[in-house]
Amino acid sequence: MTVVQVQPKEDILFQYFLDGKTHKKKSVSWRLLMVIIVGFCGLSLCFVRVGRRTLLKEAGLYGKDPVSHFHCPNILNNASNSIQLHYPRPKSYQRGECICTPVHFFVILSMQRSGSGWFETLLNDHPNISSHGEIFHRGSMQERNLNFIKRRIGEVYNLDYNSSAAKNVCTSAVGFKWMLNQGALEYHKEIISYFRKRGVSVIFLLRRNLLRRLVSILANAYDREAKLINGTHKSHVHSKQEAAELAAFKPTIKEDTLVDSFRKAVELSQNALKLFHGTRHIVIYYEDLVKNKKKLDQVQEFLGVRIVPLKSNQVKIHIQPLSDQIRNWDSVNKTLRGTEFEDFLADAEYI
């Protein structure tokens, strides 16, 4: 016969009480362990984020671009101490596979008829460079407004500015051309601050022989009214025949104001170089570009793009000696003799 031992009611309650305390002890232990684990993981993530933020700040990339850096694995490797990179997200289209292609911002500061149009055609021959020409024009009151200027520049650097220079492939350097008399110096403090903040590199394109530049200015002004080629004004041409037609005009130069106008032009360029000295910049002379094609390699290196051969379809208009291009050459020659601009008369060959 099986004997069933009945546990007293008091013993059952006591055992239940002990089991409950043991269960509570185990529960508290597990909870404490989970709190420790979660806290450790949280601190680890915090250190990772802080460390990553520090790296991005050191690379000059933190907080500067809207693109998610987690989607661009080589973002830190693309950074440079001298070139500030950006990852713009245009409003007008999606960059697609180019979203992680870093973009370098630049601007060409120059003066009219200094070869900037020809220079831009060379830059735009590069598959990864977009230079959008003059985005401001002298005389427009709206375009002399600082807010408008910043907004227009922002469109260019955000890859939203539409021009023939826009690339269908991945752009890695984008910029525009800005004449010194189109507001760049008028708001120089604000513009320089903007350039420094956004890491804009400045290319100064100047011309040494101001007499040749003056011939080009006067001839271009004449053709704007005369429209010598099929009733159409052309600032630049793409055939030798058209170049010869435009070069047939010989301007008469006012010798009484000639020296003073040259001094003002020199002062303007020197003042610009002084004001923008604190920016990342390079100074290129038109004559050097014509004589030495390696100068284009230097420009490409400055822009941080791969170096490739660049070509332009533009044809130079004024290739004759200055004595054959100025109607009152004898008077001009006499006026410049003995001045700091006498070297312009030597007309060194650089074609």
From TrEMBL:
Select a single GO molecular function from the record's annotations and give it: sulfotransferase activity
Name the Pfam families for this protein.
Answer: Sulfotransfer_1
Record has Nucleus as a keyword:
no
The EC number(s) this enzyme carries: 2.8.2.-
Please list every transmembrane segment annotated in the UniProt record, as residue ranges.
Answer: 28-48
Q: Which InterPro entries match?
A: Nod_factor_sulfotransferase, P-loop_NTPase, Sulfotransferase_dom
The question of whether Transferase is a record keyword is answered with: yes
Limits of the Sulfotransferase domain: 107-308
Q: Which UniProt keywords apply?
A: Chloroplast, Membrane, Plastid, Transferase, Transmembrane, Transmembrane helix
Identify the PANTHER family for this entry: PROTEIN, PUTATIVE, EXPRESSED-RELATED
Name the protein family: Belongs to the sulfotransferase 1 family.
Name by which UniProt lists this protein: Sulfotransferase
